[in-house]
Design brief:
heterodimer, A: about 550 residues, alpha/beta, 7-stranded parallel sheet, 6-stranded antiparallel sheet, 15 helices, B: about 210 residues, mainly beta, 8 strands, elongated
Chain lengths: ~550, ~210
Amino acid sequence: MGRFRARAALAIAAIAGGLVLTLRGQVADLSRLQILQNVGLTAVDEGVIVDQSHLSGSPGSARRAAFHATLEQAGTSSGVARFRPGRVLVRFRDEASMAERRAAVRMASASGEIGTRPSYADFDVVQLNPSEDAEAAARVLSQRPEVQYAQVAHRVRATMVPNDPLYATMQWNLPMLNLEKAWDIQPAAGSTITVAVIDTGMAYQNATITATIPAFRDDQGTLYPALGTVTIPYSAAPQLVNAANAGRIIMPFDFVTNGVRPPLDFEGHGTHVSGTIGQLTNDGVGTAGVAFNVKLMPLKALASDWDVLFGAATDVGGFDDDIARALHYAADNGAKIINMSLGSSGPANCATNANQPECSPVIEAAMRYAVGKGCFVTVAGGNEFEDNIPPFGTNPTSILAEIASRVPGVVSVAAVNRGKDHAFYSSTGSYIELSAPGGDVRGFGLAGAIYQQTFDPNFTDTFLLPPAQYHAPRFDVMGFIPYQGTSMAAPHVAGVAAMLMQQGVTDPAVIEEVLEKTAVDLGGAGRDNTFGFGLVDARAALRGLGLAK
Amino acid sequence: MTRIVFLLLGLTLAAPAAAQDEPSLSIRPFFLVTDQSFAAVDTFDAAFGKTYFPFFGGGGQVVFKGTYFVEITASRFQENGERSYFSGGKAFKLGIPLTATITPIEVTGGYRFRLPTLPRVRPYVAAGFGSYGYQETSSFADAGDNVDTRHAGFVVNGGAEFRLHRWIGVAVDVQYTHIPGILGTGGVSQQTGESDLGGVAARFKAIVGR
């Protein structure tokens, strides 16, 4: 979905006549970004932030999308990057010798070389000349007898739809899951469970960032000046991590920089998602989280605009190989729940033919690996219900959610609004398994959004200001910001799953079975393509069954 | 068990001959202890971690001409366990307290055999029906979550009575009960596919009367 949304956004940008050249051909340059960890002040908490520029469908929202597209265009030499150029992800059959593997690669690509296998990967990366057609090479490789699967590294995106913050009735979403009674059953709220959040990172520690920010042109062609080397304050979200619970952060890792930098969130999405899972609760401040005592494992696999401008990444978003590695990493380092509020669009028949463009067998294999290690995985169901994405049409299949539906222990999550009805953006299909609150401002206004603590975009999205007002961002001003999307729905289920695992259901497939059987049926009787098995009921899931009832 | 049987046989053989005099009609109260193996093995194992449980109760018999009898029995089982899930042959206990109570009321009619060589031993068989109360309560229950119901079932049993004294006897038998309608439509029993609350029980009765 994300990669195709990027296409649409690029078209808008091109019509506007402003494609940026300043950063074209840029490669990641981590020397431009230095992070002094644990040096910095605590965040300023502004409470609820009112920012009309983040309303879905507003000029500000369109501008933001165009800017993303601009950075993507500038950050890659191949223009529109549906996938990471210059690489094919290959799982060779075990019985294939190295000579046979190399021969297979040579059949597919003149420049192809099998690279050193990256950490936390059960696949190899074949490096190609970036100008070579990686999809064609993947197609040829996938048909070789030595190969189990071969694919390009598709781009994946966060699935949230940014929204305008206007604090009203904030957390209708948690009572909708019957959480108050679930907390009665389990006051510890997941305290022994580690939840990995594969996302844009997390605001989990204070830091002082030194970054060299180059000039760029925005989607309108307007030149933004270089800011030179600037010092940027960065703070942990105090409703996620504070002095009393600093130990809740487990094994953080940044797959965007391959571990060179800490997985700090420069976008806000990952921090918001993490808040829904485990926002501090009962402390008299802000909002609540579902499993508010869980341990959190920040795994950054999605890059943001600032990651590109800081030189830490070439593209906004993430790629299949990083997602797959993050799944392995989480499973190997003690995570028991993994949330993936991200996705991509593709054909509906990846289940029967995984070796075709847009399918992601590498992620399917990684999901199965994670489940095999005892991890339960939640995947956002997709936000493309109203989107027409050629060649897949309106409401295309969400690839990762479709995989989820085929792997016991991995669930795809659709979004409902505060009326327990279909959220207007939430993708539908036979792959939808569960529903949870995702927010929906259409018909409900901002009272229909999901609020959690994350960065105040007025201090982070300075690239949306006029050049004269443009300045370095600061990541130490937090507020309770309304979001909507299946990105917001999935972490609700991840939190409930963490509590269920703590309650004693340790088998991921059984967790899925329990959540589906205890869900409140919505829509037509039984499972349907809009709500799956229905709305998660935390209390029913945690309370379990007696002998007769 | 074998020791008990031999002990009873010994006591029976040692009992006075007068104990064998049987009236044409006698009414005999008794106390009852049973050890029941429930048919719903996976269901009970998921909730309680075992499937054998005692019932305690009592009842009365009316014996006609020492041969035919009608018996009414009331007993009670209560056990504390945990709410749970069952999947793939494995139970997942949730640590939420649960108490199950079964209160059978059974009426049977039977026939007592005579053994010419062992006049103090009276084998018997019986069959009948019962009304089985079932209550299930657990923590964090909302209105309507607990169970309080009663269903009918049937029962057959067979064993032997040993006369220890003119006014005292003991009986050991094996009883099979089938109780549909309580399990199988919800809860763990639905997951396990078990719908019979009955089972097989070894029963011991201490009988007062001739």
